[in-house]
Write a structure and sequence with these properties.
The protein contains three helices and two strands. By secondary structure, the protein is mostly helical. The chain has a two-stranded antiparallel sheet. The termini are far apart. The protein binds zinc ion (ZN).
């Protein structure tokens, strides 16, 4: 497999890993067979693959939070899932805030904002 360079920071000549999406933060399986959801496999260097995982969880949580905020059925309706999501957000925020590599994948300010939104609803 000729991966070339990292899909996020374009670093070449470093070990790259194909990010396996598998299940999302809420344990739902991604539809890997649907062309629209997996048109091009992405390859990332190590720091970026870590950021990509954080970005994926952040997006999942934000999507569910938006549903909750607009009164739709949300995975975050479960108090346990909501608590787990808040803990994960804090973890993401701490890691993202200390990283420079792959920072284009995740904006720490966005994470902070979502944490604040969670607090506002509590
Ligand atoms: Zn990279």
């Amino acid at each position: 497999m000729d991966a070339g360079s990292c899909n996020a920071c374009n670093t070449a000549g470093t070990p790259l890993m194909k990010l396996s999406l598998g299940k999302d933060f809420f344990g739902r399986t991604y539809d890997r067979l649907s062309p629209s959801s997996d048109q091009s496999p992405k390859w990332y260097c190590e720091p970026c693959s870590m950021m990509k995982n954080l970005q994926r969880d952040f997006r999942d949580i934000r999507t569910e939070f938006d549903k909750l905020a607009t009164g739709q059925t949300s995975a975050l309706s479960e108090p346990e899932a909501k608590q787990r999501a808040q803990l994960r957000l804090r973890e993401i925020s701490a890691i993202a805030g200390s990283q420079t590599a792959g920072s284009s994948l995740l904006n720490p300010a966005d994470v902070k904002q979502l944490i604040d939104q969670f607090h506002a609803r509590a």
